[in-house]
Structure formats: C-alpha cells, structure tokens
Specification:
Elements: H1 6-15, H2 21-36, H3 40-45, H4 53-67, H5 72-76, E1 78-81, E2 84-87, H6 97-108, E3 115-119, H7 125-132, E4 137-142, H8 145-157, E5 163-166, E6 181-186, E7 191-192, H9 201-204, H10 209-212, E8 213-214, H11 221-233, E9 234-243, H12 249-259, E10 261-268, E11 274-281
Helix pairs in contact: 1-2, 1-4, 11-12
Bound molecules: glutamine.
Length: about 280
C-alpha cells in the first residue's frame, strides 16, 4: 500500500471475504474522510498521491478493527445525522438513516415554537437535530447515564439547547418529572430477541442491547408505556411519532386506536418497510 488508490485494494484483500463490495465502498469513504479529510472526488483526483508512513499505520489500525467486526462509526468515533456530526460510543446506538427520515417527517410538519419530548435519547441525534432545525423547545430523556453524557457532549459541540432528563420511562414515577407537550417522539428498543440470530456480528457484538432488544412475548412494551404517557402528557391536538419494527405496524396502529388516538398514519422507510407512525391526540 503506497498510494491513495491502493487503499481500495488493501480493503478488498483483507476484508473481501467478510463483507460485500457495497460495504467495502462505504468503509473506503469513511477512511478517506476520517484519515485524509477527502471526499470521494478528492480521492479520485489524488489517486496517485503517496501515503505517509503514519497514514499507512492508521489505515492498517482501522482495517484490523473492521476485521474484528467493530462498526466503522465506533472506530472513528462519529457518524453524520441530518447534516451534523454526532460523536458516538459503545453505549449509544449508531444513528440510522431511517431515523433521519423520521426526523425529516417531524420537521416538515411545521413545529414552530412547539414543545417536544423525545424518549430514549441515545446519542442525542433525534432531539438535537430537531432543536437545530426548528424553533421547538426540546426535552429528551434516557435511562442510560453514559448515553446522556454522550448526548450532552454532542449538544455542547453542536450548540444545541436540548434539556436532558435522566429517567426510566417504564417507571411510573417518571411521569412526575414531565410537563405537557405538543409533540412526543420515540425510537425505542424494538428488535426481537429472536431476531438476534439474523443480525450482523458488528451490530450484535458492539451496539447496546439496552437500546435494541425487547422480549418476543412483550415486543410492544415501550410503545404501550409511551402511548399511555402520551395520553396524559400531550396537549389537545398533540402529535405522537414512533419509529417502529417493520412487522409491528398494524399492531401498533390498533393499540393507538384503542387508546383514542386519531388520524394515524403509517409510513414506509426508503427501503419500503413500515418504519414510522404518526398519531394525533384529540381528547
Ligand atoms: N433500526 C435499528 C436496527 O435495526 C433498531 C433501532 C431500535 O431498536 N430502536 O438495528
């Protein structure tokens, strides 16, 4: 490995048997951005440039970690979400593109100066992206102290003014910490324990199970708890948004209808899977 253009072949040599080409292309772009501050176009123009010794060492370090199934975003310590760079760590879920779609839906619904509560902060990607792109007053809560630390760090770096609360949404006493809101949003854990065997090692072994999994026999536990809180804490005409498991759309819609929500809308993500729900509280 001597030149910029050789990195692609190095990745293919070391990781080709483990990852598809599409994923290798993604790794390459992340490495070019993180190590060299290059865009994909820069990399084409500078293909013949010689690598410095320290850059070769860094690329080899990253590739060795990729080989051990570490997610690239955890190796470099950040990812992009809705146009902002979010720092991440092992204690937070890596922000996903489908969650950007949910944020985009909420922002396009005209938040003005509304109050919004996000449940399950993680890296802070949902509340911070909404805060940075609207005039809403945003509060966000999480049960995980290390996740809240990371979210606060992101809020500080990105100059966001989200209010964070450390609390467990499944604990009935949490309601006493909450006010009334115009909007409640959550991307709670929804992956079934039985789906573990289908998951890629880099997700399963490195991302926080606390943020991902629910028991098969109580798959909607967070949706039920949050919808019940929303009944109590949403203003008249308030909105509830969820990111959901692709197979649970109908069940969550029925649960919301039974609780008295109206105008319920189920939307697909860019992959064509049922992925998000909006419901209106009119009582
Ligand atoms: N979308 C994530 C995944 O499939 C799960 C997010 C969640 O459980 N809230 O890995």
């Amino acid at each position: 490995m001597q030149k910029i253009k050789d990195i692609r072949l190095f990745l293919k040599d070391v990781l080709g048997s483990q990852f598809p080409d599409s994923e290798l292309r993604g790794f390459l772009n992340w490495i070019l951005e993180f190590v060299f501050d290059f865009s994909a176009t820069d990399a084409l123009m500078k293909a013949e440039e010689l690598l410095k010794e320290e850059d070769i060492i860094e690329v080899k370090r990253i590739v060795a970690l990729l080989k051990k199934d570490n997610p690239i975003q955890q190796i470099i310590g950040y990812t992009w979400f809705y146009g902002s760079k979010f720092r991440i760590c092992k204690e937070v879920l890596i922000p996903r593109p489908e969650t950007e779609e949910l944020v985009d839906w909420i922002l396009k619904d005209e938040l003005e100066r509304k109050s919004l509560l996000d449940i399950g902060t993680g890296s802070g990607c949902i509340p911070i992206a909404i805060d940075l792109n609207s005039h809403a007053r945003v509060t966000s809560l999480d049960v995980s102290a290390p996740a809240l630390d990371k979210a606060k760090e992101n809020a500080c770096i990105l100059k966001s003014r989200v209010t964070f609360i450390h609390a467990d949404i499944l604990n009935p006493s949490t309601t006493s910490l909450l006010g009334k809101y115009d909007v409640i949003v959550s991307n709670p854990p929804y992956v079934l324990e039985s789906d573990k065997k289908l998951m890629a090692a880099n997700v399963l072994n490195n991302e926080p199970h606390l943020a991902l999994f629910v028991p098969d026999d109580n798959a909607l536990m967070f949706y039920e708890a949050i919808a019940n809180i929303a009944v109590d804490k949403l203003h008249y005409n308030g909105l509830l948004y969820f990111e959901i498991h692709e197979n649970k759309g109908e069940e969550i819609v029925s649960m919301l209808i039974n609780l008295g929500f109206t105008s319920i809308e189920l939307r697909k993500d860019l992959q064509g899977k049922d992925r998000m729900i909006k419901a209106v509280w009119k009582l």
